[in-house]
Amino acid sequence: MDQEILKVENVTKKFPGVVALDRVSFSVRRGEVHALVGENGAGKSTLMKILAGALQPDEGLIYLKGKEVAIQNTQQARDLGISIIYQEFNLLPDLSVVQNIFLGREKFGRYPFLNYQRMAQEARDLLTQLGAEVSPYALVRELGVAQQQQVEIAKALSVNADVVIMDEPTASLGEHEVGKLFQIISSLKERGVTVIYISHRLEEIFKIADSVTVLKDGKCMGTYSVQELDEMKLVKLMVGRSFSETFPPRGKERGEVILEVKELSCPPLLKEINLKVHRGEIVGLFGLVGAGRTELAKTLFGVYPHYRGNIVINGKVLHLTSCRKAILHGISYVPEDRKEEGLCLDLSVRENSALPIIDKFKKTLFVDDQAMDSMIQRLVEALRIKTPSLRQRVKFLSGGNQQKVVLAKWLATEPRLIIFDEPTRGIDVGAKAEIYQIMRELASRGNGILMISSELPEVIGLSDRIYVMHQGKIVREFPSTEQLTEEEIMVYATGLSKV
Amino acid sequence: MKSTSIARAEWQNLVGKYGIAIVLVVLFVTAGIISPVFYRSANIFNVLQQASALGIVSIGQTLVILVGGIDLSIGSIMATSCVFAAALMRGQNHLVLPVAAFCLGIGVLAGLINGLIVTRRNAPPFIVTLGTALIFQGIRFVYTKGAPFGSIPSIVRFLGKGGIGFLPASVIIFLLLSGCFALVLRKTAYGRKIYAIGVNRRVSHLSGINVANVVLSTYVLSGLFAAFGGLVLAGYLGFGDNWAGKGYELDAIAAVVVGGTSLAGGKGGIGGTVVGVLIMTIVFNMVLLAGLPYQFQQIVKGLIIAVSVAFYSYLGKED
User: What is the C-alpha to C-alpha distance for residues A25 and A11, in angstroms, rounded to an integer?
Assistant: First the structure.
């Protein structure tokens, strides 16, 4: 039991602008369930990808069963006995369970034909061992999420994996299915398979894990056995950082309600959401990945028109059926994914900024470029966007300046409510402070601001008020942020404490 | 580091924009070297005349491709328009206006069908327009029972065959339309939306642009231009030909792509397409003037398409 199966030593991985992993070291014993926890962006997925061979570390060593290994690609990881079950399954929906389990490793008979009987038999054995009631001939498409996951686990075992890494395996499972998964994990443990369990649902960790390694901002905060920890201690390890970002002073007074959401539900995730945003305030919306923050924001922006409940803007109940309508009513949405949803990277600063209001610049037939240029020039100056000219294509700008172009685009529509989704993702520290400054200024000019963020210091430092989401619901409102600690918020966001 | 990569990108941008015009000039000179007949005014007149029907339908194709679509039904729409023009005008000039309007209406309707299926059902335009092309063809054959009838009146003949000085009437129309739509793309809000949608449909949608309507409109315009191209071709041929626009859909796509418009959408424009159309037509003419059999046209045409696409992908590599 005490044998070390996997050891990671001083692994460092840098991406442009960020150190994703900073000299991370930890070791995993054979046959244990080892949890890997950390906030969004703590470095969990980078570490996992390195173990799976999908990324190569810049520095550091990995030992498997006492031997140093260099995992160059995913194939090699598999040969070494490391299997990964990603949050997004790697299954081909139109193939059968057997075909998926043996994909790329098909068994042959005497002639160059596939031996389906043998494969099906092996698949059936694996699935029975897992206690899964899945026919080997069923199409993956027809299976439920939990069953698909069981197929993934069977696939991992079919290569005789010693180490199975599971990334957020319960993220898309119901409560009953989670129980089933835990049974499977226990049975894996009995067979001597080591499980590395990545999750940010802390209650699960105390149910299933033997030991825990905590990552924070790319650094390893240590490995603990579960007995040494309690929930509060773990939360403290995950957050409690020293940060020195300067946030602008909080808002002084708030005006009337600009947005009121009443009993909003939007299948499959959002349930009975109530919230308010006033003029002049920045309202933070915190939640972990999968909590439904972005879904909520997009519903408020008219992307998902099939919601129930009421969205009231300036006292008027609106049925937001399209983004167009939301924009017309003064709602703006600064998306999380700047490159896919915020900007046309191949178009210029000018074209991007003018996109939502291009029709307003019509002069007889043509666009009045002069009027457009002078308006956008004003925005570029007000937001201090660093660009050689308005004609520069935005893909050549830095992340911070790109984000400002997104802002310029929305400010041009003269919005009243601005929804920011992870406003400082992928932006360097200096630009971050600038964005905070701008957001505060917009609020003090009478706009309502709803800010989604998974960075706790940002949520606490910038917001006047905070809502916390967990599994599609708002589980807590903090009316003031003055005395708030990261731990208090995290306790609600991880579902440890339910209202 | 960064500034050199920007400079490189701008340089590539320039080559991408004007490289093809240089190719046209080189071709123009080589054609004359291969055969001095090329420069004779009768031959130039001929080349331009052949370029114009292809050019007119290529304008519509450019719009569709710029929003990331494709229209394989234009050849079929052209022939249908041509056949109906001959059958309904019956050589009488006073019927030209109503029948021409009717033919253009067919084009608009065809484009509307294409566009509605593509946008409302989110269906792949390649297959949709391949299917509708067969439908329009079938309708034409049902109507003519395989043997087209009627004839083309002199006004339409002038449109296809006549000219003012050394310029064919059809090429004047082609150039006017090109100018108009170059302006539309460059200067109007509609044009800007077309590019934005081509570059990133999702961002455009989230910016409040009615993406479906703009995409639909490009198919309608493509249908309209195809029907008009069919009338020009009818004037050139002088009779209703069941196969009048055969192969034009692919030639138009080739001209658009050779002209530098990206099949992925969002990049390119009408200017490039005009150059692309001229290149394609000059190459056909060169093969004939060199005394080579018709089949060589295909070889040379294929070469030009393959080489130009390889060239543009090379330029686009920095992404």
Answer: 7
Helix (H, G, I), strand (E, B) or coil at B266: coil
> Is residue A312 domain-shared with residue A208, that is, in the same domain?
no
- Angle between helix axes B295-315 and B2-34 (nearest 10 degrees) is 160
Burial of A38 (0-12, 13-18, 19+ CB in 10 A): buried
Question: If you count DSSP H runs as helices and E runs as strands, how many of each does chain A have, helices first?
Answer: 16, 22
A245 in any annotated domain: no
Same domain for A22 and A125: yes
**Any bridge partners for residue A257, and if so which?**
A278
| Chain B residues with CB-CB distance to A350 below 8 A | none
In angstroms, the CA A454 to CA A245 distance is 16
- Calculate mean pLDDT across residues A223-228: 90
Q: Using H for helix, E for strand and C for coil, what is the string for A129-191?
A: HCCCCCCCCCEHHHCCHHHHHHHHHHHHHHCCCCEEEEECCCCCCCHHHHHHHHHHHHHHHHC
* B203 neighbors B288 (Cβ within 8 angstroms): no
Please tell me if residue A79 touches chain B, with a CB cutoff of 8 Å: no
Looking at residue A294, its amino acid is: T
What is the rounded CA–CA span in Å between residue A230 and residue A447?
A: 42
Residues whose CB is less than 8 angstroms from the CB of residue B222 and which lie 6 or more positions away in sequence, other chains included? B57, B60, B61, B63, B64, B71, B74, B111, B114
Tokens of A231: 């929930």
A236 to chain B, closest Cα gap in Å: 39
Q: Could you tell me if residue A252 is inside a domain?
A: no
Task: Report ipTM for this prediction.
Answer: 0.82
B55-101 pLDDT, tens digit per residue, is 999 999 999 999 999 999 999 999 999 999 999 988 888 898 999 99
Q: Which residue of B has its CA nearest to A330?
A: B208
Q: Which CATH architecture has domain B8-318?
A: Orthogonal Bundle (1.10)
Q: Phi and psi (nearest 5°) for A373?
A: -55, -45
Does the CB of B20 have a partner CB in chain A at under 8 Å? Answer: no
Q: Which among A333, A367, A396 is the nearest to B192, CB-wise?
A: A367
Tell if the CB–CB gap between A346 and B208 is shorter than 8 Å: no
User: Domain range spanning residue A449?
Assistant: 257-493
| CATH code of A142's domain | 3.40.50.300
The pTM of the full predicted model, rounded to 2 decimals, is 0.77
Tell me which of A484 and B49 has the higher pLDDT. Answer: B49
Q: How many CA atoms lie within 13 A of B298 on its CB side?
A: 4
Tell me how far apart the alpha carbons of residues B309 and B256 are, in angstroms, rounded to a whole number.
Answer: 11
